């Protein structure tokens, strides 16, 4: 007899990203467009989300590497702002996200002949990434235990369960996937979790948002 996710509990995991050079680089926006059309989906994923796992002393100016390159290397603020407005959390699959990126780049090329040949200050280096997953061996049997566990979770664990999960589960995070195994008992909590956008906040802030959400829901419950 198969063991349900509800019975087996929530398996707390952690992860690390391994960055791999693709050897593909673009020095003009036209070259960037051509490579963007064929680069691996893992590379696009990395340039949107990979920066969240990199230690830094200040907040990122842009939520993805493409916008940062457009602003600081191409010196095109218009394209940078357009690319920065793309929310990867709105896309359950990489290909529609790729098409949106291409549409914005091609529109900008149509608007400026200069950008067809202008050289960037430094090339855009396409990086591919693989995620390595670690089992922490922690198992949570009851949902309210997440309220006390979340403040102690590593940011990379938050990334795995709340961001990477969306690629694995068709737009759903691991927390909601588990909570839904209890039927409609935690539907309001699931709705609150679904409303949290992870794209524009550092992982420490995202962890606090999740902690606050679970704490509100289980207020008065002995943790």
TrEMBL record:
Classify the source by domain of life: Bacteria
Pfam families xrefs: DUF5752 (PF19027)
Q: Which InterPro entries match?
A: DUF5752
Q: What is this protein called?
A: Uncharacterized protein
Higher taxonomy: Bacteria, Pseudomonadati, Pseudomonadota, Betaproteobacteria, Nitrosomonadales
